[in-house]
Amino acid sequence: MYKGIGASAGIGIGSVIIVKEPSLDYEKKPVTDTAAETARFQSALDECVAKTTAMAEDMKTRVGEKEAEILEGHILLLMDPELTGQIESKIKDEKSCAEAAVEETCDFYAAMFASLDDELFQQRATDVCDIKTRLIKILLGVEDVDLANVPEGTILVAEDLTPSMTAGINPANVVGILTEIGGKTSHSAILARALEIPAVLSIEGIVSKLENGQSVVLDGKTGEVYADPDADVLEEYKAKRAAFLEAKAALKLFVGKPTETADGVKVQLCANIGKAEDATKVIECDGEGIGLFRTEFLFMDRPQVPTEDEQFEAYKKVAQLLEGKPVIIRTLDIGGDKEIPYLGLGKEENPFLGFRAVRLCLQRPDLYRPQLRALLRASAFGDIMIMVPMICCVDEFRQVKALITELMADLDANGIPYNKDIKVGIMVETPAASVMADVFAKEVDFFSIGTNDLTGYTMAADRGNPDVAYLYSTYDPAVLRSIRNVITAANDAGILVGMCGEAAADPLLTPLLISFGLEEFSVSATSILKTRKGISSWTKAEADEVAAKAMAMATEKEIRAYLESIAR
Amino acid sequence: MVSQKITITNPQGLHMRPAGVFAKGMAAFASDIKINFNGKETNGKSLLNIIGAGIKCGSEIELVCDGPDEEEALKTAIEMIESGLGE
């Protein structure tokens, strides 16, 4: 058995085709007619730009905008005046042949990029090498490896899949990919996942260990690969493949379906995001809105506070992408453990009980006002709701509301449009807010339960500390009672109540949340269909029965064991 | 010749995409465009050289424009960087 990094889930069973780059040897001899050689280079360059443009277009339609970006970058590199200038002067002044001029110039830039101390910049060396290979191939008249016409049931084995190779892959015929280099985030991994081809990467020396036509099975999740599997292994993998495909097909049935219980009680299923771009993924995964947009990323990895306009653009982008579906945006939740150097916050003894989130924002109007103003302005472009994190007492919420009212008056005075009925709610993540939920419900427009912090604060336990981590459990009756209390208070007051912590996607908790009356589940984009399927497997009456039993139990252990025993 | 200093705010610095936007924008001018960073001079019209300079988020660079349309070129360069180079 070989073991690598499982980079694209699924089971591949097929026969090997080894993809080897053809030899690009050429005779290095000085040229006499430099004008003709320059013209030869120019026409190769034109052909290369045209081919790359076509590949980028093809990639865009078959795979996605993001994957095509790499190839679009290659076009820019090919048209770089320094690159072409250096190649041409090598031909003219040094009488190099075009192949040598291309090779030496590209190698120079690849070495320069590889020496930079930043991974993202270093990766550009791969791009320069890729265009070098393509240019030399055209100059030598060597055909590209044609991956478009491999037979059905092919497992591609290569040292690495370059963007130019992957552009031609036909997922109908390729059932698996094995490479010697690359990881979960490498180009080949992203592409394999987009095309839903199982892939195992980073298997040392796999190209020389396998032969063309050899039978291979692979598991793109565990990273296990068997060559010439015996009958038992083959049967096992066939069964695994059938199970994987069945589960995938079962999930696909839920695309475009409403999220509802088996007896038709509808709930809303949204997704959590950290960056404006992630909203695209939510739409692809059939999310019904954004239940939590964490705005911290906008403030991180940069030298200063993002301006109101920058924030406005990011919020507006998400609102527009969601086309009127709800978008709950959480205002800045920093301090505590999330450090932002330019804010100059001091270290504190107990950051989780300290100066963070709304506590910090209310004392730093220079930070908070631009964010709230940007949110209000963006509310003219979609259904934006403002969520305030870490609220403990009603006073804090009233102060935020007062600030918003003041900013609204300012926008009115300047004739800037915004949604006058914008909903402002709170993230319920402190025991104080949970206990006071009935009072809060009279003042706020919605609740969203942040189960991660609510669990930590309720149990007074840090999940990262192994000595006390056993206490940190959302199945603890104390946490479940707290959640039920918040949901009941919201239902009684007729305000929206959602959940944006990890618990919302936990299938064990689904029946409890349905029974308590949770109206909105916000999960990671990749959990949307699983959660929709989970919700559809319970009727309200069944969920009520489970909840009645579970809530009568006294310990976390009993509840967990019970929920596991009836899990669907 | 005109010049101005400016800080790069793109979260991942001048990598492929923003550098490409910049180089493309600068190619429209007749003037020479130079970026001084870390004691080195870089051709502002060359994507390869801009990437090769390894300019990260928070780095201060000096833009130097020299030629018939230098004022306009510098103004455009500053505006492009300030607006985030398409990011």
Description:
The complex is a heterodimer of chains A (568) and B (87). In chain A, the strands form two sheets. Chain A has an eight-stranded mixed beta sheet. In chain A, strands 9-10-11-12-13-14-15-16 form an eight-stranded parallel β-barrel, surrounded by six helices. The longest helix of chain A is centred in the N-terminal third of the chain and has 29 residues, at 34-62. In chain A, 48% of the residues lie in helices and 14% in strands. In chain A, strand 12 (383-388), helix 16 and strand 13 form a beta-alpha-beta unit. Chain A has helices spanning 34-62, 65-78, 81-94, 98-114, 119-122, 124-140, 163-166, 187-195, 206-209, 231-252, 278-284, 296-299, 308-321, 357-363, 365-378, 394-413, 431-435, 437-440, 451-459, 477-493, 510-516, 528-536, 540-551, 556-565; strands at residues 2-3, 5-8, 11-18, 154-158, 174-179, 199-201, 215-219, 224-227, 268-273, 290-294, 326-330, 383-388, 423-428, 446-449, 496-499, 520-523. Chain A is globular and about 90 Å long. The two termini of chain A are 34 Å apart. The model of chain A has no long low-confidence stretch (mean pLDDT 91). With 568 residues, chain A is an alpha/beta fold. Chain A has three domains: 22-140, PtsI, HPr-binding domain (Enzyme I, Chain A, domain 2), CATH 1.10.274; 154-252, Glucose Oxidase, domain 1 (3-Layer(bba) Sandwich); 268-565, TIM Barrel, CATH 3.20.20.60. By secondary structure, chain B is α+β, with helices and mostly antiparallel strands. Chain B has one domain (2-82): Histidine-containing Protein, Chain: A. Chain B is 36% helix and 26% strand. Chain B is built from three helices and four strands. Chain B has helices at 16-27, 47-52, 70-82; strands at residues 2-7, 32-37, 40-43, 60-66. Chain B has a four-stranded antiparallel beta sheet, covered by helices on one side. The termini of chain B are far apart. Chains A and B meet through helix 2, helix 3, helix 4 and helix 6 of A and helix 1 and helix 2 of B.
